[in-house]
Design goal:
The protein is of the alpha/beta class. The protein has a single domain (6-236), classed as Aldolase class I (TIM Barrel), CATH 3.20.20. Strands 1-2-3-4-5-6-7-8 form an eight-stranded parallel beta barrel, surrounded by five helices. α6 (136-149) crosses α7 (162-168). The protein is built from ten helices and eight strands. The chain binds cytidine-5'-monophosphate. The site of cytidine-5'-monophosphate has 15 residues, from β8. Cytidine-5'-monophosphate (C5P) is lined by residues 9, 11, 35, 60, 114, 117-118, 156, 178-179, 190, 208-211.
């Protein structure tokens, strides 16, 4: 297992706040995630300020466009210093786009693909015209298979899809899972959720956790408490 599987989502446009959180949380988490909200506001310079705090960065920009544009975008992102540990595209971009993305990244970051957003229920997925004849879970597994065949290292999926994704691919195909809520936390806009412990039990490799940590009065304490539940699980195994 990855040493500390917690990836804290630093969803803020404020560079100083994100850097402060990265510094305070470094002893308690394994990764920090920067997404659109941060990167659109602060660009490569803001990214570098946070990355310098030393946590490996998951740059969650979810690229989704034609193969040539996605590959060119990723080549630009590969110039970031330090390079993101993990970077992602949407699996629904299709096989050619995924292959072009893998070629552009060329093993310099772990490239993963978003399957189905964890904020979508099966009804939402069908309404959007996806997976009309199957469940969101089967659709996620099929997209994971496509991503693996294209040479990607893993997927972003709901904790509820991890077992199917692993069964459709291989054990070492990474599953990065948002939609994680400690038992006593608010669900907010997430729908297909699990507790950190249940997600890890199902075989998830990296747990993306945002508001339950960053929205806590004491984020370091919240991260420490979540990490403790995961360690107990390792001891129980
Ligand atoms: O605050 P919360 O724990 O819900 O944060 C989850 C993070 O994971 C957010 O940054 C969100 O954009 C991201 N994410 C997600 N579902 C996906 C992919 C990414 O919630 N399928």
């Amino acid at each position: 297992m990855i040493q500390n599987p917690i990836c804290v989502a630093l969803d803020t446009p404020d560079v100083a706040r994100a850097a402060e959180l990265a510094r305070d949380l470094k002893p308690h988490v394994g990764y920090a995630k920067l997404g659109m909200e941060f990167f659109y506001a602060n660009g490569p310079e803001g990214y570098e300020t946070v990355a310098k705090e030393g946590l490996p960065i998951f740059l969650d920009l979810k690229l989704h466009d034609i193969p040539n544009t996605v590959a060119a975008g990723l080549r630009s992102l590969m110039r970031l210093e330090p390079r993101p540990a993990i970077i992602n595209v949407h699996a629904t971009g299709g096989a050619d786009m995924l292959r072009a993305a893998a070629e552009a990244v060329d093993g310099r970051s772990l490239l993963i693909a978003v399957t189905i957003l964890t904020s979508l229920s099966d009804a939402d997925i069908h309404q959007a015209g996806f997976a009309v004849d199957r469940s969101g879970r089967d659709h996620a597994a099929a997209l994971a298979k496509l991503a693996r065949a294209a040479g990607l290292a893993g997927v972003v999926c709901s904790p509820q899809d991890v077992r199917e994704v692993k069964a459709a691919t291989t054990r070492d195909f990474l599953t990065v899972v948002p939609g994680i809520r400690p038992a006593d936390a608010e669900v907010q806009d997430q729908k297909r959720i699990a507790t950190p412990r249940a997600a890890l039990d199902d075989g998830a490799d990296i747990l993306v956790i945002g508001r339950p940590i960053t929205g806590a009065a004491d984020p370091a304490q919240a991260a420490r408490a979540i990490a403790a539940t995961l360690m107990r699980q390792e001891a129980d195994r």
